[in-house]
């Protein structure tokens, strides 16, 4: 790794000011993506701004209608949390499928959402539940947040502070993990919200996570059992790789949606 | 450069390090604790696993300078006494759970933590799931799982063979 400085600000405004003053700064949360990239010299910031000292970014709370999780919350804390288990148990189940126990002890939900790896699991929950992303300067709806592979609506110096997940009436996530990396080849979250059905797909999309609006509409208008038979996914733009060709991925999305819907029924 | 103070294996250790120093380099190169290994540069293999304040982490992916003063670290060197192995090390030896031994320090630290976090009991299935972040290129894992079952029993935690599986 190249040499760099590390600072640990105690106020959000100081963190943003330091970012803008430095020639090349990056925010550091759990480091589980950033540190390996720096070791590989894919990233070479001169200043690392450690976000672990900012109280607004910590903590998990249940407001009745929604669950708020601080961006600096580590995966392991989400898994252990009685508040999460009570409010949105399926979110904890999804988090339990991310990486391994050591990575979950360091990696954070905010770092993962800001990074927007197309094969990450969390986008399925953010988009599937219609979360609100709370930053140091505004609130962003999940539907406006994902702009493509590794690209989000966050401005360069913007800090994701917390995520607000509306509670579903029922939700289920199913994932096909990559046999070597464990990331999602595809992952599908199906949620019945007060306002209607939402279905989100991660891992498979050519432009990152997306809503499967065809299935949402079919669920809205008819019986759950018939919904999957009615939809046509042949036009969906999915990633095409030798090991996981496009047609296989489209089929996988349907299998995983069926698995999720099956788990909702029981 | 910055001065840090950590509690490593029960002893207070002071060090002056560059900000870019990884925890594993601090342990191996500065403190001479070479039991912790480096097996990859992609944070995947788990040869470098140590415990920070009772939680297992990949020390190749943690910047030492971000650890608060006084943070407690335990490495493989903390386990054996001058005349006895830790029961988990003993179980690895008895079950032939290592060949080249490169993955073993990370696996033993992980195994002990799995036992501590599951006092109600262990099954081979649960162990398999918890070993996702530790790669062994030699053994094929069967003897490692057996060793963790035996080590858990020696640490006083019940073990249950899964259906159709020999203990
Ligand atoms: C071996 C391994 C396996 C993995 N498997 C999976 C998996 O199966 N599924 C999965 O989803 N993920 C997986 N991950 C990724 C893991 O979940 C990471 O924790 C996550 O991607 C990044 O979180 P972090 O806190 O470590 O972020 P960091 O590495 O600290 O940061 C990531 C990026 O986001 C920026 N950033 C961080 N925090 C903020 C913030 N609050 N606001 C704005 N920008 C910010 C940083 O500048 C950096 O560019 C895996 C990682 C490893 C090493
Ligand atoms: S050396 Fe740390 S995970 Fe491989
Ligand atoms: S014993 Fe050789 S890698 Fe595990």
Main attributes of the structure:
heterodimer, A: 266 residues, alpha+beta, 5-stranded antiparallel beta sheet, 12 helices, 24% strand, B: 167 residues, Ubiquitin-like (UB roll), DNA polymerase, domain 1, 2 domains, 5-stranded mixed beta sheet, 5 strands, 15% strand, binds flavin-adenine dinucleotide, binds FE2/S2 (inorganic) cluster
Shape summary of chain B: globular
Number of helices of chain B: 5
Question: How many domains, in number, for the residues of chain B?
Answer: 2
Q: How would you describe the shape of chain A?
A: globular
3D structure, described in words:
The complex is a heterodimer of chains A (266) and B (167). The termini of chain A are far apart. Chain A is globular. Chain A contains 12 helices and 14 strands. The mean pLDDT of chain A is 96. In chain A, a hairpin with a 3-residue loop joins β4 (60-62) and β5 (66-70). In chain A, α10 crosses α11 (224-230). In chain A, strands 4-5-10-6-7 form a 5-stranded antiparallel beta sheet. A 4-stranded antiparallel beta sheet of chain A has the order 11-12-13-14, with helices on both faces. In chain A, strands 1-3-2 form a 3-stranded parallel beta sheet, with helices on one face. In chain A, 35% of the residues lie in helices and 24% in strands. Chain B is of the alpha+beta class. Chain B has 2 domains: 2-77, Beta-grasp domain (Ubiquitin-like (UB roll)); 87-154, [2Fe-2S]-binding domain (DNA polymerase, domain 1), CATH 1.10.150. Chain B has a 5-stranded mixed beta sheet, sandwiched between helices. In chain B, a hairpin with a 2-residue loop joins β3 and β4. The longest helix of chain B has 14 residues, at 104-117. Chain B starts with a strand and ends in a 13-residue tail after the last helix. The interface between A and B is medium-sized, with 27 and 27 residues. The complex binds flavin-adenine dinucleotide and FE2/S2 (inorganic) cluster (2 copies). Residues 38-40, 43-48, 58, 60 of chain B line the site of one FE2/S2 (inorganic) cluster (FES).
């Amino acid at each position: 790794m190249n040499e760099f400085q590390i600072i640990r600000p105690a106020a959000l405004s100081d963190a943003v000011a330091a970012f803008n003053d430095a020639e090349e700064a990056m925010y550091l949360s759990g480091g589980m993506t950033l540190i390996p990239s720096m070791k590989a010299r894919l990233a070479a910031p001169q200043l690392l701004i450690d976000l672990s000292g900012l109280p607004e970014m910590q903590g998990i709370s249940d407001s009745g209608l929604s669950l708020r999780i601080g961006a600096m919350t580590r995966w392991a804390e989400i898994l252990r949390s009685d508040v999460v288990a009570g409010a949105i148990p399926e979110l904890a189940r999804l988090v339990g499928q991310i990486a391994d126990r050591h990575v979950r002890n360091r990696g954070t939900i905010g770092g993962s959402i800001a990074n927007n790896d197309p094969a990450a699991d969390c986008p399925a929950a953010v988009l599937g539940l219609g979360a609100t992303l709370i930053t140091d300067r505004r609130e962003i709806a999940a539907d406006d947040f994902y702009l493509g592979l590794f690209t989000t609506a966050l401005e360069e110096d913007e800090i994701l502070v917390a995520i607000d997940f509306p509670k579903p009436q029922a939700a289920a996530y199913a994932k096909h993990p990559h046999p070597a990396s464990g990331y999602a080849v595809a992952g599908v979250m199906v949620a019945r919200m007060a306002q209607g059905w939402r279905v989100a797909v991660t891992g498979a999309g050519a432009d990152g996570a997306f809503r499967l609006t065809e299935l949402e509409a079919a669920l809205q208008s008819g019986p759950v059992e018939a919904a999957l038979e009615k939809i046509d996914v042949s036009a969906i733009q999915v990633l095409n790789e030798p090991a996981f060709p496009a047609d296989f991925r489209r089929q996988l999305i349907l299998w995983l949606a069926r698995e999720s819907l099956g788990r909702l029924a029981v | 450069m910055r001065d840090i103070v950590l509690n490593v294996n029960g002893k207070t250790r002071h060090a002056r390090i560059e900000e870019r120093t990884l925890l594993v380099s601090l342990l191996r190169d500065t403190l001479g604790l070479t039991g912790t290994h480096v097996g990859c540069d992609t944070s995947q293999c788990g040869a470098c696993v140590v415990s920070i304040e009772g939680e297992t982490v990949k020390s190749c992916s943690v910047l030492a300078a971000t650890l608060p003063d006084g943070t407690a670290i335990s490495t493989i060197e903390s386990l054996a006494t001058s005349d006895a192995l830790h029961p988990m090390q003993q179980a690895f030896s008895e079950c032939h759970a290592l060949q080249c031994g490169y993955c073993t320090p990370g696996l033993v630290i992980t195994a002990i933590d799995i036992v501590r976090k599951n006092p109600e009991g262990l099954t081979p299935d649960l162990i398999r799931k918890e070993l996702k972040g530790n790669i062994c290129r030699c053994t094929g894992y069967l003897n490692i799982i057996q060793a963790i079952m035996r080590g858990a029993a020696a640490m006083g935690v019940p073990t249950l063979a899964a259906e159709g599986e020999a203990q």
